[in-house]
Design a protein that fits this description.
The complex is a heterodimer of chains A (about 260) and B (about 550).
Chain A: H1 2-9, H2 15-46, H3 48-55, H4 60-85, H5 89-119, H6 127-130, H7 134-169, E1 172-178, H8 180-183, E2 192-194, E3 200-203, E4 214-219, H9 224-257
Antiparallel strand pairs in A: 1-4, 2-3
Chain B: H1 2-12, H2 26-29, H3 34-62, H4 73-92, H5 95-109, H6 117-139, H7 155-158, H8 163-190, H9 203-235, H10 248-282, H11 289-302, H12 318-346, H13 355-378, H14 380-386, H15 390-420, H16 426-453, H17 467-497
Helix pairs in contact in B: 3-4, 3-5, 3-6, 3-17, 5-8, 5-9, 5-15, 6-8, 8-9, 9-10, 9-11, 10-11, 10-12, 10-13, 10-15, 11-12, 12-13, 13-15, 13-16, 15-16, 16-17
The chains are: A mainly alpha (about 260), B mainly alpha (about 550).
Amino acid sequence: MNHTAELIMEKHHDPVGARIGMWLFLFTELLLFGGLFLLYAIYLHNHPEDFHYGSSHLNQFVGALNTIILLTSSLTMVLSVAMLQRRKENLAVLFLVLTFLLGAFFLLNKYFEWSAKISHGLYPGSDVLLSRSYGEVLFFGLYYVMTGLHALHVLIGMVVMLFLLRFVTKKRAKVAALLPADLEQFQGKRLYLADEQGRRIWESEPLGDSVREVAVVVDGVRTKEHWKANVIKFENAGLYWHLVDIIWIFLFPLFYLIAM
Amino acid sequence: MANGVVEGIAIDRSFWEERSRYRGILSWILSTDHKRIGILYLSSMIVFFLVAVGIGVLMRLEMISPGETIVSAQTYNQLFTLHGMIMIFLFIIPGIPAVFGNFFLPLQIGAKDVAFPRLNLLSWWLYMLGACLALLSLFVGNGPADTGWTFYAPYSIRTGTNVTIAVIAGFILGFSSILTGLNFLTTIHRLRAPGMKWFRMPLFVWSLYATGWIQILATPILGITLALIVVERVLGVGIFDPAKGGDPVLYQHLFWIYSHPAVYIMVLPAMGVISEIIPTFVRRTIFGYKMIAFSSMAIAFVGYLVWGHHMYTSGISDTSRMAFSFLTFLVAIPSAVKVFNWLATMYKGSIDFQPPFLYGISFMFLFTIGGLTGLILGALATDIHVHDTYFVVAHFHYTMFGGAGFIFFAALHYWGPKMFGRMYNKKLSYYAWGLLFVGFNTLYMSMFILGYKGMPRRYYYYLPEFHNLQVSATVGSWILVAGILLMFGNLIYGFWKGEKASQNPWGGTTLEWQVATPPPLENFHKIPVVETEPYDHRHKFREVK
């Protein structure tokens, strides 16, 4: 029976493979933003003065604050991963929650910042904006698209953290299982549980065709397998969060600082 | 006893009879088995392919006489957009990797599955979601997009048709393609059987490796470009809108930065499949293994830098046009390296003209025509003459349909018996090939001449002097479609009711022929140890009748 249990388990643990997959995914994210950075570079080249003027409308203080928030959140993310690697699950949860809150704080600032711009009539397609020069229209267009896509990534990162939280707090493990393919030969047979004297304390109905899995599930424990799988998930989520951070590191000067 | 159970799974039961947590249709659409996912892709893809073929036949029928024949001009625009979108995004881009790559990559490298089986299933789901959205765009609002499959701005921003939904569908399909590429790359890096060094991998695996890199590095650019079209349509940001200072030519750049490498996503796996088929049917090892492998990587790399040849008439500078033209000629070199290596493989081989081989070498013939006419298009002076004419249409049908499409059929004939465990009627598949080949050349050779004489693509009306050739193209499309229907009819009947196929019907030497037909759930009872190069035919001739 151990054999079959191994059979379902063996697929999962290849930390190197998981990391390769994640890095490849991060490449695709870089290229996704890369297209936008390319557009930014070309339009900055075509309208340097307008971009300068547009940038002076942005609030450098809020931008800097958000930069600090995101950088700090990267630190707490690293700490969370490091704690989990040392099997300090509770501290890992604490830092994960902190990271989540910092992400939320970032989005809150973004919300106020955007609302202020929109209340001044600076949003795509508005009459105020369209009466300005081409360069400014493009600057604010790119501002909303790029910081918007970045904010979407922050949001996705936070959803990922909620999943991590669920994985790391789950205390239930499947330690052995009979796969459906093997169950066939036990059809019509019964399962029972016996105590140390061999008395049957519980007996199942005969196994019919509708039974698809027989498993032993243990409550209240965290197995080593479970922990290993979580470490991989945390590391990969951490990589993603740092990517989101790095993209912001480039967005901040390109939009907020070029007028200074 | 426990051991016996494990053996029972691996040896006796094929993946068709696999018992999982779910039953009925759920045991397919929720299965993470790479073989079942391959079959899912295959069945959905054939449906989309036949729909797009039907649209193509309608378009040809419309062009049989000048002016309105069966549909209005607006409908004609929507038909060619749909034909292009379905053929490109739903059939030929995912095509060979998603069907045959999924099914045979793990088998060929001696693995039990791909690296991320659940991600693999997710990419099929995304594929179906994208397909459903594309379908939805037919029935809501102002009908399907009429922009052509390229969605060029600013028209795609202004038109009232359902561009938004179609473009979102394209975005989702792109995501599905990225996930497949990512999965295959990781699988090839991590799950090769012991002894399977990089240069012992079958060449199909090499081509999937090169394709995976293009999928990962090019598709996100399409993603952001299509997303920007949606943003333009919904919010009116102005990035590609000249009325607001944007530059539509930048849209073309971004679009082709993906869509040119995408043609290599379509054709590289096909080149991999033929590198499998030729050694098997000539009973020789492949000539120039390393050169074929490297040329796949070279095509993937250089193919990145040639997108500008789609834009010679868009007003880009002469310097960049010359650079793009030079790079376009450069990319012909690795392609030619492959063709000559395949030819050299056949030299003095004992050639066995089985159906897969026949379909395979017609690829070489058709693709060579497509490739050489590509050079005419890649040269600046001649391109200006034939730009945006039927010549271009004929060129990419020779490379995509004559290339990747024919190889898709060849792969069905080659690996189909392995996948379904049954053999088709070979005689009928020869007849079907005859119809396909004659119909194909009648249709697209007429288009070459039409284009050379100046018939622009996507036009609804045409001058009377083009009439004869338009008629011959349309007649060609009927012969072609008869061939397609006969071929699929024969294959479907064969795979359903045909006689049982043996474990190695063609005498192939790669690992997929060493497992049962159809393969068992876990592929290999014991992971094989690889000791020789993939196409070692020295000891094989005894086994083959």
